[in-house]
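Researcher: I'd like a structural prediction for the single chain below. Treat it as a standalone chain; there are no partners to consider.
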Amino acid sequence: MPKKTRYLVGGGGHGRVLLDAIISSNQNVSGIIDSKLEKGSKIFGVTVVGDDSMLDSIHPSTDELVNGLGSTGDLELHRRLFDDLSNRGFIFCGAIHPSAQIGRECEIDKTSQIMAGAVVQNRVKIGKNVIINTRASVDHDVSIGDNSIISPGAIVCGGVTIGKNVFIGAGAVIIQGIKIGNGCIIGAGTIVRHNVKDSLTSLGKTQRETADYTNLTEYDTLIKDHYDDVGNSTNNPATSTMSDQIVRSKETEFVFRQVTDAQKDAATNEHHEYSIIDIGCGSGHTLLELSKSFPLLNLVGIEQNEKMRESAEKTLDPTSVKVLQGDVRDLKTLPDKKFDLVICQRVLINILKLSDQVAALENLLAITRPTGRIIFIESFNSGLSNLNEARSEFGLDKILPAHHNLYLDDDFFRHPKLIKLDVSDENVLSSHYFISRVLHPAILKALGIDELRNSKFASFISTAITNSIGEFSPLKFCVYERLD
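Model: Treating it as a single chain, here is the predicted structure.
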């Protein structure tokens, strides 16, 4: 029988990781099918041969497929691609990275994928179209149902039963002997100590508080890998890491207003040498814009990730902006001075342990002068809950925090040294999130079109509707003053 031609369907983030595993296993892929990639372009030497329409021109008798669609909480595309094309007679091939460790007497379906550094212990049963992602650990006698995904760094202890169509978030821990029903979602960093019924989401405050990383660096690799990818994919060094341009624009407008207002207050109090520090400055987007509009400001940026810091240094003028290495969790790595304004944009949510988030807040207070201000642009569980409740009315899947995020509770900033200032635009993104994450996906679903972010439709409607109502945005804009 002649050897079939093998195509990878999907060349995005997961598709590239999968392709690397296939190549590392000395297997061949003849081409990549992806509507979002330019035909003729190459990934790891493999050519993009066409868009999704090509699936109608190949045949199960001569061609086989690899499922390159991953998931960040929504399993539908991953499952639908597999089911639809399997029903048309196509055979799907799996992959096992050579660095993965597989124990004795395991039953792993040939369509499933096991990524680099994963550990699968003895007598584990893995169903069809399953992904065991990077450095995930699956212990003895575990059973995993079809179409389920075990995210990077997740730990599944011995004797656990996981149903079909289950998503286990990054760094989650499933305690020994637990049973997780079909269609469940286990959020990143969650420890599951009790059985979970079908179609439930486990993402509560108590569970997040029980997440037990033994030291500061245990989850650093996950965060580093994410921002290394961002740094490597950024052609323009000072490009924002926020892909939603409406959100990015509102963030920048808010920061500029607060800087202007804070400077006025400082001038009134005869405090003229105004200093600003941007914690987690990333590639320097905010600092670049501030240096253009406020050339006399004393600006400092702190960035832990080396690639992002190098990106910022390429663009920012070192005579007006200092970019330093630092970790907000470790006060010793931060400048030994007090700042008038501290900017904290999506920094605390990148810390995957609650106690470390609290420690970071204390360190932010330590570098803020009395009566100085801190701008927090962070994501909260309450807004995400409201958003998902609205999505459920249209039959849309829940949105989970990204694998490198741990959202905050509403009372997180309750602190004796902090007083919240009244800002009118705390929930300025609510309408935009409802439009882009509820209304637009509902319309696309009705039309049979896959969900799409950053569309011209959502951007136009969000721009046209200037009033923001409700509390549907996880991301909130807050300003606090540091008390003596």
